[in-house]
Structures are given as C-alpha cells and as structure tokens.
C-alpha cells in the first residue's frame, strides 16, 4: 500500500490520511476477532497490554499530528521508503 501511495502524487495530508483510513479498515476487520477472543477467554485477556496499546495509539496520533505540520512531503516519502527497505531486508533475512 505505501509504495502505491508514494507514487499516487498525494500531498502529505492526503498521503497520511489515506494510510490512516486503510489502517482503520484493517483494524475494524480485526475487532471482530478480538471480540470473539475476549468472550472466549475473559480471564486470560491481557488488560494491561490493551491499556498500553490504546495509550500508545493515542500518543502516536497526537505526536503524529504535531509532527506532520513540521515535515515536508519529501521527508515523509524518504522515511516511508527507508522503512520499506528495512522491512524488506528484514523479511529477506528472516528477522520479521
């Protein structure tokens, strides 16, 4: 998805917003599975992990919104490209 979005010619707000909408769609699909797991194993549910993940998501959204105002589209593209290369190398090496 990121590779396609890099070449789509969006401005930085549209680039990030499109990625967010896609991530939300994926997370909504996962929510049903998480809900089933919650009702199946209520005692084994890891509430501290859920709380930490929720806090991290809100903190990341807040910091991302602040940072997006200060960076250029070129910088966003460079970071996304670098991270795609790192993930690709990790997959090729069997680390990910």
Overview of this protein structure:
This protein has 96 residues and is mainly alpha-helical. The protein has one domain (2-93). It has four helices and no strands. It has helices at 2-7, 12-40, 47-68, 73-93. It starts with a helix and ends with a helix. The model has no long low-confidence stretch (mean pLDDT 83).
In brief, what are we looking at here?
By secondary structure, this protein is mainly alpha-helical. Helices cover 81% and strands 0% of the residues.
**Average predicted local confidence, pLDDT:** 83
Distance between the termini: 18 Å
Structural class: mainly alpha
Tell me the domain tally: 1
What is the overall shape? globular
| Global Rg | 17 Å
Find the count of extended strands (DSSP E, 2+ residues). Answer: 0
Percent strand equals under 5%
Spans where pLDDT lies below 50 across 5 or more residues: none
State the helix count: 4
Topology:
Blueprint lengths: L1 H6 L4 H29 L6 H22 L4 H21 L3
List keywords for this structure.
96 residues, mainly alpha, 4 helices, globular
């Amino acid at each position: 998805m990121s590779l396609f979005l890099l070449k789509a010619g969006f401005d930085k707000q549209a680039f990030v917003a499109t990625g967010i909408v896609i991530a939300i769609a994926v997370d909504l699909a996962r929510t049903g599975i998480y809900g089933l797991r919650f009702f199946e194993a209520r005692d084994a549910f890891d509430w501290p992990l859920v709380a930490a993940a929720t806090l991290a998501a809100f903190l990341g959204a807040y910091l991302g919104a602040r940072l997006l105002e200060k960076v250029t589209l070129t910088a966003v593209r460079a970071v996304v490209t670098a991270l795609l290369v790192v993930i690709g190398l990790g997959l090729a090496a069997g680390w990910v």
